């Protein structure tokens, strides 16, 4: 049984496996075997310098994005001013309608009289048609 136990995987230690302090770039290059090949090849600039054009393009794009957001903010402010002004105009019209009388506006009797007049006109038309038909 001791032989079976010794051939099994070792138990993990209770100590943390992560380093206590961050590694530097040079130690990472040397750990992976890149330290000597880079210095022997004549490269003495950091690898991040190769990304400089992409970062410049990103910075330009971010500047364009900021300008577009500023234009969007101006458009938002303009629409807000218009909305407030138009709402004030509509409120004024509403208050005007409450404060003024419109004597020419129809009332319930006006609609009743209009229906009676229409019915009367229809009866006269029918009578005229019948009268003209009986004379012929």
UniProtKB/TrEMBL annotation:
Residues 1-26 have a biased composition (Low complexity). Its main location: nucleus. It is found in: Chromosome, Centromere, Kinetochore; Cytoplasm, Cytoskeleton, Spindle; Nucleus. GO terms for biological process: mitotic sister chromatid biorientation. It comes from the Eukaryota. Belongs to the DASH complex DAM1 family. Signal peptide: none annotated. The lineage of its organism: Eukaryota, Fungi, Dikarya, Ascomycota, Pezizomycotina. Keywords: Centromere, Chromosome, Chromosome partition, Cytoplasm, Cytoskeleton, Kinetochore, Microtubule, Nucleus. Residues 1-38 are annotated as: Disordered. InterPro entries: DASH_Dam1 (IPR013962). This is DASH complex subunit DAM1. GO terms for cellular component: DASH complex; mitotic spindle polar microtubule; mitotic spindle pole body. It holds the Pfam family DASH_Dam1.
